[in-house]
């Protein structure tokens, strides 16, 4: 069936601020869907309250509403625009829930809006645990023994029938919230109570435990006439018992016999057909008994999901893009494969490589949190590795995590306590993968590791093989290491740093040695069809084989370094900057090359940059791409701290950094040098000192006076920062910092108690400075800027203070020889303006200011960085109306036992934007009245 031409305008609902369980995979989905629909000549209106995303940028849709995701906002949009249909399947659980609320309130019907891409019967069937269970029974799909309860007493009765261990799952929740395993009767009452409260309809499913079974997912596309294709199979490395968002996942499934795969496929098609009419992407999850191959249907998501983003990046099949076209009436056989451009979209991708996704956690931000993994998702991001085999992909995913590891092991950081390892194997946490490796290295028997983890023996064998290889390499030194052993290690994903550790030499020596041996990276295409047809889209991963499929052009080109996996302190806002950096460089006539490893993002979409290298943002990988492509230079200031940390190495290797120089970037990070610069410019800053021992800290504290702000150098999101009020607190924190970050220099600043905090963002071309926005924090100084409510423009700073902020911003930007963006943070006390810090790079607040003032500041900044324009060439025309409030959003509900007070270390996972007309607004007045409430020391 061709496109439904009666649909001329569509409303897309976004997913709101990023929280644990719902992250930037929906920015990717929404952006792709909007572009896909606009290709068809459809007017796209979009609502989302998240200012940090590409989705809410004017390049994405015709009409964008940065409004709270409420029925009131939907009504306002429908009264203003003639909307034919709403697509609610691109914004996660938030969008689905809002669309259903609007349906129940009769809003869609009143305005003649059709719901496309899914239907509410299908959604209700998949979300309502009891309806889902009854349908599976009717379809003859295996389910766990159990039923739903809507009261405490009913839950107790069901548990008595089933017996322990059992599982509790809450209805209509996100990221497994409210769910959990209950092993003993004495733990049941609290778990049941928590589950009932977590569900918005106070309903839980109580069923038999299938902990330890194997878990698989099928990512499926379906059109309105019932055509189905399986985009890919995904296998969870971790068995049932760990939320799939917290599991290491592998595509295609590695240990799935074809007979069982065909059964899963048949089950999935039957399940999807059974839930009702819809067209688009769908994720189906199964548990399979490891010995009997019994199949149980776990759940269906009749929308794009976290797995859809992963499957899209894994196969090159753009699920959200095709799903949007199916939603407007097309069938799969009427659409083209977006990679080959010549074959049909009605095909099942075939891949000749392996994908491994490893989640990224931030437990360090939540002191005292329960670090065990279970049915409730706790990870904040993920990294994906692509390799020709599982081991290579696994090592690359581990290299992408940025947790101070060089891959899986071979870095001397293994745990050697037998008892601690046994405990970790049985009770999964974020580091269980590393502890499986450590257990093999320590000599714990294979059978013991398998019995405790229930991880499939095939995966365990793969890790055991790595230990055997390391033991072999260990027998040699740099001069005697045979070429075939070096090649084997590289083919299994080992970084030069890991090999250097094993043979006791420098990383650079290993690199030079393998170049001498002729062992160099080659690049392969992600082509969706295992090289059976020519791919038109340049989307590459590296490996060690003969043929190189990435042929460099002679064009002038630029590399943009991405920000890696999401984490607290570095999230989607840097992806926004990277995407705009690419678009600006294209406008300046450059071939653009993106390097990033985050499958959830728009920057890793195959048609954003001219070339995409899906690789770790890790020195060795970047350097070999640079050697191949020979770019004019590398942009580091858009990818957050991840990209910035590589500036020193780029400088050392003589690679041009586009924009602000490494010297200036480093000067801003080095507190001593930066303070000398401020002194020269006659700019005030809080008294401070630098210490390298706890003794020095105590003597310096006498000079500076308490309270003190303690902070290590070169950290992200305020990691390790704390306000201390006496010597005992100071000593304890400094000792802990030196234990965690040995060799780091620690700053002690006199903390300006009760000061007002503000920040300015600016663009500088080395001489001219344009301040794009000044934001005033509602809370006093001491709460990390990422966790503060902040108002653009400032709401009660006097003219004198504003003039000082503007003057200091210009002076610092020029003194640092900034070329591009800079963010400066200030503390204001008694009308004196003190500098807290300067970051000559894209900041968290830049996308916020771009959205609030409706100006493409990143585009301007990149053109300045490339030398294409001067600041004075732009006609700045910000739309200044009322005030925009940045609202931080937290995911504390995932860590119920954690202290929720805020301080200098960032804890928020996302943010939203809220517009007010004036300062008499009730919402603002309430925020201002509570500004001191959450500050902790």
UniProtKB/TrEMBL annotation:
Organism the protein comes from: Reichenbachiella faecimaris
Protein name: Carbamoyl-phosphate synthase large subunit
GO molecular function: ATP binding; carbamoyl-phosphate synthase (ammonia) activity; carbamoyl-phosphate synthase (glutamine-hydrolyzing) activity; metal ion binding
GO CC annotation, single: cytoplasm
Residue span(s) of domain ATP-grasp: 133-328, 675-866
Record has Ligase as a keyword: yes
Entries under SMART domains matching the protein: CPSase_L_D3 (SM01096), GARS_A (SM01209)
Subunit structure: Composed of two chains; the small (or glutamine) chain promotes the hydrolysis of glutamine to ammonia, which is used by the large (or ammonia) chain to synthesize carbamoyl phosphate. Tetramer of heterodimers (alpha,beta)4.
SUPFAM superfamilies: Carbamoyl phosphate synthetase, large subunit connection domain, Glutathione synthetase ATP-binding domain-like, PreATP-grasp domain
Function: Large subunit of the glutamine-dependent carbamoyl phosphate synthetase (CPSase). CPSase catalyzes the formation of carbamoyl phosphate from the ammonia moiety of glutamine, carbonate, and phosphate donated by ATP, constituting the first step of 2 biosynthetic pathways, one leading to arginine and/or urea and the other to pyrimidine nucleotides.
UniProt key word Heme: no
Cofactor: Mn(2+)
Family to which this protein belongs: Belongs to the CarB family.
InterPro entries per record: ATP-grasp, ATP_grasp_subdomain_1, CarbamoylP_synth_lsu_oligo_sf, CPAse_ATP-bd, CPSase_dom, CPSase_lsu, CPSase_lsu_oligo, CPSase_preATP-grasp
Listed pathway(s): Amino-acid biosynthesis; L-arginine biosynthesis; carbamoyl phosphate from bicarbonate: step 1/1; Pyrimidine metabolism; UMP biosynthesis via de novo pathway; (S)-dihydroorotate from bicarbonate: step 1/3
Keywords (A to Z) from UniProt: Amino-acid biosynthesis, Arginine biosynthesis, ATP-binding, Ligase, Magnesium, Manganese, Metal-binding, Nucleotide-binding, Pyrimidine biosynthesis, Repeat
